[in-house]
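I wish you would study the pair of lines that follows with an eye to the fold:

===
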Amino acid sequence: MGLFVKTKKSKSEYIDKQRGKIRLIIIGIFILAILAGSLDYPVLWDKGVDWINDNIGLSLPHFFKLPFRLGLDLQGGTHLVYEADLSNIDEKQESMDGIRDVIERRVNLYGVAEPIVQINKVKDSYRLIIELPGVKDIHEAINMIGETPYLEFKTERSEAETQAILEKQEQGDEEYMYIDPYFVSSELTGRFLKRSQLEFDQTTNMPHIGLEFSKEGGDIFAELTKENVNKRIAIYLDGAPISIPRVSEEITGGKAVISGEFTVSEAKQLAQRLNAGALPVPIVLISQQSIGASLGHDSLTKSLKAAIIGLILVAFFMIFYYRVPGIFAVISLIVYAILILAIFKLIPVTLTLAGIAGFILSVGMAVDANVLIFERMKEEKKAGRDKLSSINEGFKRAWPSIRDGNISTIITAIILYWFGTSIIKGFALTLFFGVLISMFTAIVLTRYLLKLSSK
């Protein structure tokens, strides 16, 4: 009999110890939620701190401010699509990577916040999708991209070839109308440019632009000058010749000079433009779209309203149908929403309309996990188990279904993010993090709240 009492006491102590651990975990989660909520909406924290500082005399700091990063469709901006001319290029993907890097540097010089520059392949054509949040003037955006110079070196055609092309053009042959009769493009373009700078001619003291090529570009330039001694090599910028020097000897070392009737300011500006990025290949604007700030604000307002209404309806359903467990599920859902919004700020995630849709979808999945758990708990209670056992067994039996459903969604989100464009990526990213956090709140927080309430 004494042994039975000791065992019963030990079991009671073990349960009390477990309850103590559960309380600490729940308190920790709620403290984390309070901090995350202050990050989401620091105004509440700041008002409380101001009251304490005014009435108690302390000097507590305000919560640090971190804004949400909004996508083009929510804050307005410009969406441009360019198509690259890769007809004479073998390494197409490498050239597109070069264009993307150049344009990113170019738009960053103008202070555009979080520009998105992506490569998109449509059948055999390569396109560049450029999103410039906050840039409302579409002409300014087009000029911003169009001013990026396309630098190329052209070799001189033979007199016979020049004469033949000119005759074809005089005859109105459309095939020859857009062919340069004097010079032919070479392999050397701005793709191989390492840097450019303003220099002065030591003899005339006139300004010119000094060019320095990469090692590969220097080798190409040396071969080009070797093959064209006593001939002219034309330097074209944006399709127009700006300098046509005659080659007297092979030039090694990977350096060249652009001379012409430049003022100091013109030469300096050209050097800056070339350093900002000379496009490896020409690009043509094929689509343009401007999204106004008012339209973006309206879209954001409607999206947030839809999210709040969805949360409220789900909360009413869970409480009405499951009573006390439903209340715990709603608490977990609120904590989930607070945590996920804080993560969106910290990473940060660029929120788009599609991203908000992914967030709302993940809310549904969080509730779905709770529904599976609660239904399993009902089955265990009907089988005669006590409340604590039904909670443990209900979670244990529901876990495989929750795990498989969420993992398949996570895999789908990863695939969408990997292969999708900017809008699809926003949806995939918010869905990915939403599913992860919803699993945490459903499996950990809801479970511990139920255990704490059981006797």
User: Anything to note?
Assistant: The two ends are 25 Å apart (CA to CA). Confidence is low (pLDDT under 50) at residues 1-6. The domain at 77-290 is CATH 3.30.1360.200 (Gyrase A; domain 2).
